[in-house]
Fold:
Amino acid sequence: MAEMKRRWGMAIDLDKCTGCGTCQIACSQSNNMPIFQDDSDIAKRVTFLDVMQVTNDNDENAEYPDVKVAYLPKMCQQCEGNDPENPSPPCVSVCPVVATDVGDDGVVSQIWSRCIGCRYCQASCPYEARVFNWWKPEYEGTFKESMNPDRSVASRGTVVKCTFCDHIWKKERDKAIANGVTDINAVTYTPACVSACPTGAMVFGDLNDPDSEVTRLSKSDRALRLLHPIDKLRETDPELYKKRIAMKNYPNPKVYYLTSQKWLKEMIGGYKHSS
Amino acid sequence: MSKAIDFLINEWKSYSRNIQITIYVLLGFTALFAIFGIQILFWGLGYTNMNNIFNMGLWILGDLGYVALGGGAFFTGFMLYIFRVDKLQPLINSTVLIGFMCYLFTFVLLVFEIGQPLRAWFGYTYPNWGSGLLPTSMLTEVIWCLTFYFMVLIIELFPIILSHKVLDRIPALHYIAHYLHKLMWIMAAVGTFLSFFHQGSLGGGMWDIMYAKAAWFRPNHLYFFVAIVAATAGGTCLMMVIPKIAQWVQKKELIPKDSFMKLAQISGAMFIFYFLIRVFDIYTQWTTALPLFDRSFTDIMSGSMYGWWVLVLEFAFTISAVVILNMKKFRENDRIFTAGIISGVMAIIMMKFRVIMHGYSVPNFPWKPYMTYGPSIQEWALMLGSLAIMVLIYMWFAKYIPMFIQDEEHSDVQHSQ
Structure:
């Protein structure tokens, strides 16, 4: 097979997102997320994709009618560290048992059955994208019948995460091979959340392909990465930018968020913008 | 059989009323440890108050505390066997026992801590070593180094157990104990080598390498070294606090004052070093590490429930230990000395409390609040139960094994015969 040239990434237009939660439901269904009696215990909930409510109402200056709310679908941001050629997401190097790794397509994987549940990767993730199975996964009644046979169910006591629906990619790859296509780069796919989005706010594709929609969106003026203020420095103060990336790794996620709203850019861009 | 029962009943009756009550209470905590331990192992960590954000809690705090304070064992052994500070000899048996128990219960708590205890051995079979000699994951380093050092502690403890009067009567065991004593400097050297690594990795490196987390990351990885120095300073204090309590309980001098003073001097010197390196660590976190995240020290401290007061308390205890252990007039006053060594232990506990509680409380997202955490009854039961079992083991050793100076002299006489 040819060498993998893909570098999967995602762009999410927050101005198009209505916060309907369809992406989260599609994700949970496709990835066999358990459903517990009390899922109002959000801090222990098991979900790969979380539609977060972002608001400026904890800002002292935000009073009626200036209070604003937006919805942000947040999944694993598939970080790659400072060097995309030698990716080093914050969660991978910390795992004591090599249960997590970065694939040649840039997707951060997790082997459920290798994980010992130490949660060190979870502690090191700045996006709270990794979740732990605090309870034994349960599927009541008819939920069992709708489970996805392509996705294995993790045991209690393991860390799980979004893998950009790699089970769908594997299925598409197998289909291509069955049709006699052996070039791995000819295989494309769409994760469950992107397929389900009713407003077309989510776009998935290959960031290495200069003609792809996701690459075009990632280069838009409206695009920014979650909690990644160092990006701004690259333009405003290249010297300081170089100094900082020489001092430490930055997550460099492969998920881009697009918005024209200034307050939202400031809120999700980071704690305080570098100037 | 009836003789054994009679022996146990007579032994029990020989204890004072206070000791009997203490043992009842400790056994109560041990029972809770067993009950809730079974619940956690069989039904999972859902019963704890940890969650996807505050994903480690009281038990990791216990692990960090046990390893740092148990680190007094390696440092006291190093000073005695390598630097030949012979005045520390009367403290060494108690020190080895405390170190052994601290590491034993670090493993025990880790087994409860991980979600898949039956896969604990994966740490040995699938270690994240990377391509070089040094491990990639700090936790891999912790697992391996802790295991090796625990083996060293078992070997160090072995001659102490063999000095029991019944075992000591068996010539073969007597000579094994004798020659193990002679080889102890090798164990001390190996233990020191191993301890430098795992003290740094579990106490410091594990946290300061998380490059995406503002509250923990240090670009200079100074926190790794802070943790090593903390263990040498605070650990030696614990090695004085416990025999001091034993003396208070038994109402007699078990360790000569000279030995305490010598270890206090060593601990005091290490506390000066610790204070300086810790101040420098906080300074560089303030001026270098946090600006890399576009965050400020006041930002991560002000909103947290575990912010400024924890830092102030940590430094109050540290400064108390520095002053008391380094000034002769304070050191020689028994009450002030006791306050000094307790301050030393508390300084290290507060340092660990800060790294865990404050580190997890700082939100990742600007629109989220600072987190708080209170352990569940299961977490308390396992933590306090582990302490209770350690106290029971120490009491048993203090009663039946010649751990202290008078017995040591007796043993030396026997060995030289």
About this structure: The radius of gyration of chain A is 19 Å.
